[in-house]
Structure prediction request, 1005 residues.
Amino acid sequence: MSTATGRAPGTLVRARDRDWVVLPGSTAELVLAQPLDGDREFVAALFPDEVDEPGFGRPKALPGEAGDFASASLLRTALRIASTAGAGPFRSLNSVAVEPRQYQLVPLMMALRMDPVRLLIGDDVGIGKTVESALIARELMEQGSARNMAVLCSPSLAEQWQRELRDKFGMEPELVLPSTAARLQKAIDDPNLSIFDHYKVTVVSTDFIKQDERRDAFRHHCPDILVVDEAHTCVGTGGNEQQKRYELLSALADRTERDRHLILVTATPHSGDPQAFSKLTGLLDPSLRTLDTTRSADRDKLARHFVQRRRHDIKRYVGQETPFPEDRDTQDALYRLDAEYARFVADILAYTRQQVRGHSGEHHQRMSWWTALTLLRCVLSSPAAAAATLRTRSMIAATRTVAEADKLGRAAAFELTDDETAEGMDVVPGSLPDDDSATPEVPVGGRKGEVELLTEFADRADALAGLEKDAKLRILVDRVKRQLVDGYDPIVFCHYIPTAEYVAAHLKEELGRSASVEAVTGTLHPDARQARVDELTARRGRHVLVATDCLSEGVNLQEHFGAVIHYDLSWNPTRHLQRAGRVDRFGQPRRRVREITVYDTDTGIDGLVLKVLIQKHKDIADQTGVAVLVPDQGRGVLEALASALLLSGKQAEGQLTFDFEDDPDFGRAREALHKEWESAAERESKVLTKFAHSGLRPEEVEAELEALRQALGDPGDIATFAREALAQLGAQPIGDARDRGFKAPVDPLPTGLKHALGFYEDTDQAMAPGAAPKAKPKGRAKSAARDLIFREDLPIARGEHGLSRTDPAVRALARYLLDAAVDTTLPLEERPARRLGVVRTAAVDRRTVLLLARYRFRLKLPGRTPADEERVLIADDAQVLAWRTDDDGRRAWLSDEETAALLTATPDLNTLPALRDQQAARAVAELKHEEVDAHLSERGRLLADRLRDAHQRVREAAGQRGRERGAAAVRRIEVEPSGDPDLLGVYVYLAAPAAAQPTVPGGDR
Prediction:
């Protein structure tokens, strides 16, 4: 497939003083090319008249050019790290800025066996579903089987998705929200193009796009890949909003209209409602909707589309340990209301009962019912929340129908909503009556008297603020101080904005300089919330974060915080799970995290909710391993509790404690809920293990992961490479006290490498053309040492680097070594990775020559339909080959295992400079022999066949040959070498006598 210029994809050219690889898409007028070092940020369109033959040639045997024994290993690893088009079936792994855990590759392996991809990822909270789904999307786009993608999610998670896709996967997503849609459409010149045609990657608010006026347009222009976050919110019987989402997804999933890829993501695929789960799986394939998961054959069919793992499934997976907290230390912080606060609560309760019992008319009764419940919740939250809601007009009182009142009331009082997010749930609901509402039976002297009474209540709430009269605040301050003493930075979750601000203000006053305190609530834009958290954690010392449930999902806080304190009990068990999941997740450095629940013993309300809903939720998960959502969101038992509280609650004279246990309606509701809940959990637990293994045999997974390690290199090689490269460049690594990595000084490094790493002497250098992109310039502080800090595993703090091939600092180091190796004008001390080397070692018994070669291949992948053009991709692969010279002078080529062993050989005897130059020159001359060229070409064809087989293998469907579209499509995959391999390095190993003397300084190391 040559272009009009005669430059076939994969061939080398030289232009603009550097070497390039020609990419598919070149024309007679322009040559599309990527720099030879693999840097995709500088893909360019070259004019034919500036393109010349490549300057990159074979090594030259110049005097003193031969390096030491480490050169071959350094250059080979640098080559693999720098590559962004690796020769393997998982092309995306070469270009993403994240090192997936091995278990996170299983959904990708499942996806490549489908066409189109129809997958439900139901992994537990904190396992990494975002990475898993984004990895699939990036792979599909890399391979050309998808042109664009959209993520449907809640508005509060949109910025989080945008950051993940941009920072980890190299995408440039646009947010499609009510505030951005018009601007995005206006920026498109062609009026016939929609937002989703023009922008390659979009993150879309589900509730924005599901509206009637937008739904049909999105249906017609929906991208090739659709990722649906929190997919469980789109099914079920929650109400009109869920129904609209389901109708939208059903239309988008319809394969008779278009075979788009669909990835559903949720930590709670099982809602306890079999019908909802059937609807969810039916979106993947209509035939899955009628499956009986108690039957083995049906589970096998579903397992091809569904993966669900818990922590114990993946903590150790195919030999890799994933660091999760080993335990969660749960504690209760009980308190009793102070006398004055208790009287205030009793008076509020008497008022609310009078309101509920005094109104006539169904609508007014429901308004009074919900307003009373929300007022009680605010009063028990904090004096600040009580005062705020008593001075705010009731949003429930503004409703016009019973259905509208019930919808708003359930959301405000029970935190039950069919909306997809907690956004806006932290606003106080208000208690003041609506001006237009007609309530003829108003107690306390008419309309004016009721408003005056509420104002008096608000003034009383103000007087209760502070440690002296607020026992709940006192116990919080005590527990926060305990956590800080024990080394735990806590997150304090509150229900209402006024409570969070009240708590943060008093904690700041009490903690003083011992800890930094900040509040994050729904008053901040979602993007500003993350900025507030970053600002807090960037300060030195200890940190306390006070937040509402706007931070209970989508923001990962495990790096800096180790404890969660529920200052306000959520009446939604899922919310508690999400709160704890901010710290109890992958990447948490602590072996134990803490979860503390604050509640009073006077009313017994929160204690009962804790026992009936939250503790039951935890018990079921612990006993069965299944996190099943509370049936019907616990609506029946919560309404029975509210009824007992407002209509028939009994308590002793002068006390607040209620005897809910004796209420028959509440008892029946609780029994019915628990029975349904336990039945759903038992049903789901019986089939869980099948989906934990995802229908893939362990030996299949292990074989593919081993092949992946061979292609990309072992993670341990990266640490060795970074240490050795920095040491040889004069920046000696120093072990870190945390024993999880090392640090190295920046200043001894060559200037070009420092700039590539983002370190400059002044801001003028940082802003100069060619400065490191996307890096925050690190200038020189007054006499301050500048260090590179590397970590072996998560967590990785801001400004530190991970020892992975995708880390920007590791990749910059690799690209510097590659560029320096071919630049013979640089001083020798700035070129640790040499293209020539000679070593005397006991690892060989006769002269052996090792070659480091880079092969390039053209991959031709079939189109998704017979009408589609084939897709042409370029891949490269770093290979080591070696021969030894036998007694008769013939070359005997070594096996792959024998060759790999040479890379770990160590010198056993010094090599004189003259001998090094002589042997290097001899080896370079031998490269001209026809036998060497023939073997290199034969190796290229063998590697091409292996690569074709690998692409075919990962596309074989479980239990049958080929994809859904048939084995013929798989067999149409073609791979062929693209030109001659680049010979990057030649290294000679000479036999050392068995009793050789050890090497000495100044000799060959």
